[in-house]
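4.2 Preliminary Data

To establish feasibility before requesting continued support, the project team ran the inverse folding procedure on a target of 163 residues. The structure was first converted into the token representation described in Section 3, and no sequence information of any kind was made available to the design step. The complete token record follows.
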């Protein structure tokens, strides 16, 4: 987990702070699978497609939509991702904790590279909504990851209580 020196972190500029907040939520999403069996990670505890493994798989989709599609305008098909967010929760027989975590780690590394040489004021035109500032995109990704961290906390609590 990313643990910046607190005194430097609190005084850092927005770009550094948003990177740290997003990384913290990426780490929390990854950790929701720690110590679970494959069956537990895939378990459907709510009527939707939402599972712990599916949340992490969806988070990789989110990373690619916002940090690969938005800056480049490449199609989702060209990026190797599904066209619809709901589909991104669907698990294949080949999806395992290790494979989904590895894919999410790769998506996060790619995202970090995409923002490395820029700041929040840059406008990316590749999203369906049109031109969006990187700052808006980062805040959106933070909001989405935070929401899914909350889902993961509740689902994990249910899984562990059912042991």
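Position-by-position output of the design step:
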């Amino acid at each position: 987990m990313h643990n910046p020196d607190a005194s430097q972190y609190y005084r850092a500029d927005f770009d550094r702070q948003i990177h740290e907040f997003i990384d913290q939520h990426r780490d929390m999403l990854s950790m929701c699978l720690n110590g679970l069996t494959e069956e537990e990670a895939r378990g459907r505890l709510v009527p939707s497609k939402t599972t712990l493994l599916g949340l992490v798989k969806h988070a990789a989709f989110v990373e690619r939509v916002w940090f690969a599609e938005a800056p480049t305008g490449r199609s989702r098909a060209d990026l190797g991702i599904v066209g619809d967010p709901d589909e991104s929760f669907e698990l294949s027989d080949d999806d395992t904790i290790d494979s989904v975590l590895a894919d999410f780690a790769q998506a996060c590394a790619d995202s970090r590279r995409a923002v490395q040489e820029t700041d929040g004021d840059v406008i990316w035109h590749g999203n369906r909504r049109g031109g969006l500032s990187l700052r808006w995109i980062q805040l959106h990704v933070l909001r989405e990851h935070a929401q899914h961290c909350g889902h993961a906390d509740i689902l994990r609590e249910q899984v562990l209580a059912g042991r």
